[in-house]
Each structure stands twice: as C-alpha cells, then as structure tokens.
Amino acid sequence: MSSDISRIYLDNNATTPLDDRVKNSISEALNLWANPSSNNENATKAAEAIAEARNHLARMFNVENDGVVFTSGGTESNNWVIEGAIQTARKLNRNEIPHVITTNIEHPSILEPLKRREEFGEITVTYVSVNPLTGFVTSQSVNDSLTPSTCLITIMLANNETGVLQPVEEICHLIRDKLKEKSPFLHSDVAQAAGKIPIDVKSLGVDAVTVVGHKFYGPRNGALIFSPRGIRIPPMLLGGNQESGWRSGTENTPMIVGLGEAARIYNEGYTNIESVLRQNRDYFEELLVKKNLRNSHVIHFLGSPRLPNTSSVAFLDYPSHGCDLLEKCRTFYASTGAACHKNECSPILKACGIPFAIASKTVRISFGRSTTLAQIDTVVEELEKLCSPLTENDF
Amino acid sequence: MSSDISRIYLDNNATTPLDDRVKNSISEALNLWANPSSNNENATKAAEAIAEARNHLARMFNVENDGVVFTSGGTESNNWVIEGAIQTARKLNRNEIPHVITTNIEHPSILEPLKRREEFGEITVTYVSVNPLTGFVTSQSVNDSLTPSTCLITIMLANNETGVLQPVEEICHLIRDKLKEKSPFLHSDVAQAAGKIPIDVKSLGVDAVTVVGHKFYGPRNGALIFSPRGIRIPPMLLGGNQESGWRSGTENTPMIVGLGEAARIYNEGYTNIESVLRQNRDYFEELLVKKNLRNSHVIHFLGSPRLPNTSSVAFLDYPSHGCDLLEKCRTFYASTGAACHKNECSPILKACGIPFAIASKTVRISFGRSTTLAQIDTVVEELEKLCSPLTENDF
C-alpha cells in the first residue's frame, strides 16, 4: 500500500468523499446539540434542521416528507426491512413459515440476515440468479419464485460490483398487477444507485428503498424511505418514538443535516452529475479499447443497463489476480470485490456466472463526480503498462 | 417558550452540549472519509482513529478493547440486548418461552421492546417495582423474580428522572453466586450514569452495558460494551462484519472519534467532573432549604444513593403542575418527565410510588459540568418567586 494520499480515487462505490458543503453543514449542525424533543430554542432549531433535511430526501426520491425515516445507515435499513416483513407475516399467519425472494447478488446486509433466519428455520428464501448474459434477474424468474407465503421481495436497484441495473420497476408492476393488495412487501436497496441516477420511488412501484449517505457524498447515516402508498413494516428500534414512532433513538442531528445537504446537492445538479459520471466511465472504457488493451480485457455486462460510473473490467493479459494488479498500481485506488487470495474471486462475479479465470482478474473502477479525463488518461496509461504482455521493459 | 438561547441549561439528563474538544475532533474526522475496510492510506488513518476511540472507551469502562462495540446509540444498544438475549434463549430451548427481569423505571428503549414481545406472546417479563421509600429495587426482589426460563436481567444503573442508583453490582453478585455459569445475561443501561460517576464493568459484574455519547458531552452515537468475562449475545445488525462481526455497517468514523474524545475527556478529569456536579447539586438543594422554599418542596429520594447531578424536586406551593412552572421560568431550562397535561404526571415518578399530587408538581433539574454557583443563585431566586405563596406582588 502506497502512502501517497494524492492518488486518483476510483473506489467511489466503496465510499465517496464528503462534499465540502456537506462537511460544512455537519460542522455547523454540531452547534444544534439540543435534544430535538426538548422544549427550548436550540431544540426547535434542531427539529427545524431535521425537517429541512427530510424535505430534501423526500424530494430526491419523490415521496412525502413523512415517508423519510432516518436510520444509522444501509445496514440498519436492510436489517429492519427483513425483520419487519417477517414479523408482519408471522402476525398474519403464525403457522406458516414466511418466504422471501431476493437475488444472489445482494449486499451482505441483505444476504446475511436472510441466511441467519434461514439457518434457524424461521424463513425460507429463494435467491433468484441473475442471467449470466445480462447480469440482471428477470421479472419472470422473480414471478416464478412466488409462493403463497412470500412476504418480502427485496432486489437491489444497482449492483455495487458490476453496476448492472436490476429491473425493479418491471418486477414491482408485474407483482402488483398479479397479486394486487395481496402483494408482498416490495423493497429495493438503492444504496449504490442513489446520487448517480434519478430514483422515483412512486414510479418504481416499491414500498420502500434503502438509502445510504456515504455513497453520494454524504455522511455515514442513511434512511429507509417509504412510498406514499402507505404500506409499512413495523419499527425495529423501539423506545422514545422519534421519527413519528418509526425509528426510536434521539436524532443524530448533524448526521441528518449532512444527509439532507447531500440530497439537496444532488437535487440541484442531478442531470449534470449523471452526465459527468457517464462521460468519465465512457471515456475510460473507450480508451481501454483504443489502447493496447484491445482484446486483452473484458468489460462485464457492457450491453446491459448499468450505473453511469461503474466499470467492472477483467484484465486478461495480467499474469496474476486483480488484487495483485491493484497492489502494483501507483497512480490510483480501486478495488476488487474479494479478499486478496489467489484462489478466491468475488462471490458477486461468481454469482453472475463469470468464470473464475476471468472473475479473478477483475477490478472495479468506480468514478466520482470530480474525476477528470486527464486522470483517466493517467490511469489507463498505468494499466496499459501493467497489463501489456511481457516486453523488453520487463527484463 | 422563550427565544432566549442564553438561558441557564439545567436539562443535562436530556442531552448535554458537545464539549468543544469533541466538536473539533468530529470536524477534523470528517476528513477521514475513507471506508475503514478499504486498502488505502486514508482508510488506514480512519481505522487507526477508530482504534484509538475504542481504546478510550475501553479505559473508561475497564474492559478490553474488543469489548467495545460501537452502535448508533442507546436505543440500538438496548434493543440489541433484548433481541439477542431472547434469540440465544430460543436457540437453547425452543419449547420454552423466555423470561426477562427488568424494573418498572427503565428507559422506553428497554420497556417498549419488551412490551411488544410480551404482547406477541414471545416472552414473559417481570417488572420489578422500586421501593417507594428508596427509589431503587432490591436485589432480593430481583432474586425472587428468577424463573428457570430467565434469560436476561436488565436494570439501569441510574434512573434518568430521579437520579437514584440501582444496586446493579449487588444484584449481579447475588445472581452469579446463586446460578454460577447458568446465570442469565446481565445487562445494565448506564446511559445516564456514564460520564457522571466511574463505571467499572468488571466489578459491576454485568455482561454488558449500554453507553450513550450525548449524555456525557459526546455525540449522538453510543456503544454496547461487553465485559471481558466473554459472554455475548449474537449480533443484531448483520452484513459486512464490521466491529469484528458484532455490529455490521460501515463505521461512522467522525461519530466514533467524537465518542472516543468524550471518553478521553472523562478519563482525564473524572474525579473533578464528579465533584463539580455534586457541588452544584448540593448547593442547589441546600439553597432551596435555606430560602423561603423551606417546607414547601420535596426532593425525591434525598436519602438514597443518587447521581451527583440530578435533583428531582416537587414544588408543593406552586399552584399548578411542573410543566406550567417551567413555562413560566425565564432564567433556565429544565424538564419534567411527562407531557404537559394537567392530568398526567411522569410515569417514572408514578412507578416510584410518588403520589400524583406531588409527582405532578415535580421538576427535574440536571446540572452540567459548566453550571456555576452564581447560575444556581439565579435559578433558585426565580423558583422562590414563582413558588412562594401569594403575596402583594401578585395583585
């Protein structure tokens, strides 16, 4: 690991830097230290700042203000959805084991809570496989997985490693058309998509989405955002009835204000944000083709709808695995989806049907809002050097 | 509600201001935006800052570093303990309904999750009553409540309204002596005591304590702190295996750093902190006696071991209820434990056996580290005016 902090940062799907305006908003909101439930002037100011943040989030996802429930992050939101949907199902029918449909490429904060409950015999789960040709699940395969006990369908909007968009809207409409008011709770983890592409919760057709601040230049908290259609799961954290009873716990005012500011910034410039990300990603992918890397690399799911900022690229001429390649890189940071062992590759890529030999040489490049074309030139130049077949330079 | 933000703040049990050093540490840590699990320099710095914070917390509560698990706050910690202890019990014996022992004066983040599970028939609960003469439960009454199905005993160390300390250490030793390795999980919510009196998790004899930053000049996050004895409950939030698997979710570096700084500040000056709090509280209570309020006020549980900063005082000569009194005060902020209705009083005071006529006239004064004796003079002067029997000034 280099000690050069000025490297080009191309791991924005892991976390983004804080926008300076977000940073300032948090620092200022540290002065709003009063308990928002108290009866004093600072408390009122804190409550107002939270209300404003809620408004920005509601606008970002096209929901009502009361649909926004602030949480400590995506992991809490996802665990809550699973716990809540199962609890509701149990209450409705105590004798039936609830069934959940998800995909085999979800974030661990979806897969792990499901697996634990499955192991304990509390639920059954169908992990719908993505089509290895496209990287996304089909609405038909989700539909085919429905059972009378299905209480939850949770499908991410964009995969964090491949960037491939899943047909959440199509799935929701298919399920709702078929099951009407008997539809299971429909959830989408939009952590990786939010702040990169517009997300309209109403037209998506979901009951709730998971949102995470630090994936779009905001802080490390998040939200569970409910559709105005009004179907909810019971709260997971009980206590002082904050967030209108949906999530107890004294409000973390500075974090909430920061998340609101990140949403405000996105609302203000979303068209430009998306086009900058896409421009960078496309420039990078075109450059790979133009350079000597032609025929020696594979961009996964190039033909599928993808996030505008993510390239999942296998460098086939590189003699070792992706982690090894990244360790050699000196100009930029990126990541692979797996621990750095020769015999391992990303479980997500494996689940996408990518053969081990290719998956193990794959690197995820995730561009940010401030990535420049000149930086991409530098990065591709280094990749070109490292991935070229042996030349005299190697001797 | 006045708009005078310079009022004397005597509601430190609701929340404390952020210590300026905590505020600065958070603002600086906003620069440590990298994902601590990533492999780059900023990530290493973030991980190191988190490790340092963990060390301060471990020192504050006399546990090993790996006993400190950062959470989003006390509500999460308390909900986790309940969920985890019940889950463990169910795993051990599927046919038995788990039993929990707690008190009738716990925080809502203990009482509400218990009540929900009780309503659903998932558990049975014994709410041990505090002795109305002392304001605390006896170890005997806890002992008498034990059943073979008891999986959790959760008893707060200090009550947030009365400030009365509960005999947690005595209870733990009694239970452990009796049940040995078959003891249920022993938990104490020390949210209100931490940062006011020293807490030694080892000698307290508990398996875990709930800690909340914003009660001791830290931020709105918290921790669940496990004893080195090594008995743990399973994690509640699953996903990316952060916090050594005990609490998943990308670490909220700035909040964790701030909590660590609050612990460091306490560790540095805890003797002085406690004596300042006690001096203020004692001065206030003596002044009430010296002034015209003699015989017209009651300090609840004056003879019991109490937090050094909390006075729960009923102003008997005041013609209306406590909320009304506080609304008339212009020099300071304090609180009552209940909504401002004539027919309601704090459920905690009610549970402590305080008659309605007295409980409804009760105000909680909670002093802070920077309260001055001169401020207390001002406060008592105003209280004296408002609570004196009618004089010519009222005509």
UniProtKB/TrEMBL annotation, chains A, B:
UniProt-listed Enzyme Commission number(s): 4.4.1.16
Molecular functions per Gene Ontology: iron-sulfur cluster binding; metal ion binding; selenocysteine lyase activity; transferase activity, transferring sulphur-containing groups
Protein's recorded name: Selenocysteine lyase
**Cellular localization per UniProt:** Cytoplasm, Cytosol
The record's function comment reads: Catalyzes the decomposition of L-selenocysteine to L-alanine and elemental selenium.
SUPFAM superfamilies (UniProt xref): PLP-dependent transferases
Entry keyword annotation includes Cytoplasm: yes
InterPro entries for the chain: Aminotrans_V_dom, Cysteine_dSase, PyrdxlP-dep_Trfase, PyrdxlP-dep_Trfase_major, PyrdxlP-dep_Trfase_small
Q: What class of enzyme is it?
A: lyase
Q: Name one GO cellular component term.
A: cytosol
Q: Which residues form the Aminotransferase class V domain?
A: 8-378
Q: Indicate the family of this protein.
A: Belongs to the class-V pyridoxal-phosphate-dependent aminotransferase family.
Q: Sorted alphabetically, which PANTHER family does this protein's record hold?
A: CYSTEINE DESULFURYLASE FAMILY MEMBER (PTHR11601), SELENOCYSTEINE LYASE (PTHR11601:SF62)
